[in-house]
Every structure is written in structure tokens, then in C-alpha cells.
Design brief:
Strand content: 15-25%
Number of domains: 1
CATH architecture: Alpha-Beta Barrel
Number of helices: 11
Amino acid sequence: MMNVRDLGSQGLRVSALGLGCMGMSQSYGTAEERDEAESVATIHRAIELGCTFLDTAEAYGPFANEELLGRALRGRRDGVVIATKFGFRFGEGGIVGVDSRPEHVREVVEASLRRLQTDRIDLLYQHRLDPNVPIEETVGAMADLVREGKVRYLGLSEVGERTIRRAHAVHPISALQSEYSLWERNLEPQIIPLLRELGIGLVAFSPLGRGFLTGAVKRAEEYPADDFRHNDPRYQGENFDANVRAAQRVNEIAATKDATPGQIALAWLLHRGPDIVPIPGTKRRRYLEENLAAAEIALDAPEIAALDAALAPGTIAGPRYTARQMAMVDR
């Protein structure tokens, strides 16, 4: 069975690798490629293998991913840690803004509980900072739900140092969810040291660089228009070519260890510290099993140094988000 790790200093224990469920409902691949039966089977297989930290959000679908997870977990709820996120307003075109007003926090948590078919959320994140609502008010509302037993632990996503400190002063924050991988290392100078100072764990999303670090990549224009990668600046033009070259070192080390490039990327993350939990996403059992096998791969100091150098901060070409998406990141 998979090892467990402590997320933060408040008692939340999760599997060393989690499962990101978003792609089961949106963003990666086409609707025709999604198969609910296979997604449910993937969730069940994750639990069998000890990967019991399951990540979703009201925004995924929207709503459809929480509903899928709720159906998949019938009869299995007590064996898993469910993490979900709130913080957006939705319209016919999907997300139309952010909303972390205290009254909205309560509304969305009640709705998430219904969709997930559970009486509690193990880890509740604010998905994106709402600049119109003081973080103290939002976290205060989240803390009320902890006291009522509807939420167990609190998290934040994609926020900066000042927000983290202010939130943690209201109620202990157990986890920050943010993008972190060989491909994206912006957290290293300031955020990770702060998390360790405060006793907050890091949940690393997109730990495979949105698939780039698996080696099985195509140029942006070769993906469907509704696939996240179609508009990803790092998959476009000269950025793509430069990033293929940068990722070559991952492929070379994988070849020496009879592993896949994705497994090496995940192993690197697991070696960054016991307070970091990657949540690679997949909708198929085959890739789930491949990802989880990364927990068994040992990297020595020269291999880690070679990876650090090959994909050092600044070597990846292109911003990690479009300008519109970056505007929602609190940095």
C-alpha cells in the first residue's frame, strides 16, 4: 500500500500521491474520449492501491466532476480523503467571475455536500482569491463550517505570501494547492519556505506539466479547441520546441531507470520533501497505475542535480497561463 504523508501540522494525513479528477469531466481530451465507467473504475482502482486522496472542485464541469465522484464513492466514502474547491460564479458560458462572500461559501459547501453524497468535506479550498472580499471574512466562514463538522481542514489555492499569512492567522491552513513540478518552479524562492515556516503542506497540481513531462506531447494546434493545451503558451510555436529540448534530460534519466518520463517527474517531486503531495490527473486505470509506481523510484543526488539543472527556473519557455488566467493568480 502507498505511504501516507502529513499535510500541514493539524492532523490531515493523505496518501503520498493523490488523484486529480478534473480530466474525467473537462479540459483534457474530447468529450468522446471520456468514459464514465472507466473513470469510476479508475477511482476504485486508486483506492485499491492506497491512493485515497481525491481532488475535485465545483468548477470542474462545472459540477459534473463532484457528481461523478459522489457516484463512484458510494459504499467507499470512509476510506478516502475528499478535497474540493469553491470560489467562482457560473453562467451559461461557464465561469463568469469569483465569489468568496461568506454567505456564498456556505451555499456552495451545502451544494458540494449534496453532489458528493457525503456529510463532510475533508479538505476545503478557496479555489481563487476574491479581491473584493477580505480573506479574513472568507476563512472565517470556512472555519464556521469546520466547527459545524461539515468541513475538516482548510486550504487555499494559487495565493501569495501575504494572503497565506492573513488566512492562517484566522484559522490554521492545512494545505496550499498550487502548480509545482520540474516544469513550473515559481514556488521555490518564497512560497515553499513560508509554508514550511507555518506548517502548511503543499498539494502540487499539474505535476506532469499538463502532460508535457510524460514525453507524449503534441503542438497546441493539434489538440481540440476545448482542450486546455490548445491555448497553453508553452505548447505553442518556438516555446514548444524549446521545452521539448529542456525536457530531454527527463527522458534520458527515465531510460536509465527503466521508467517513463512521467514517473521520473513525479519521483523528483516526491523527493522534494515529505510535506509535498502531487496529484497527477488521469481518467484511465493504465495511467493511474503508471503514476503510482513513481512512488517506488529512488533518485540519487546526481540524478536530482541533473534534473534541477536541466529544468532550472527560467529554462522553460513561455508563461504558464494566458494573461487572463494569470490575472486570477494572487502573486
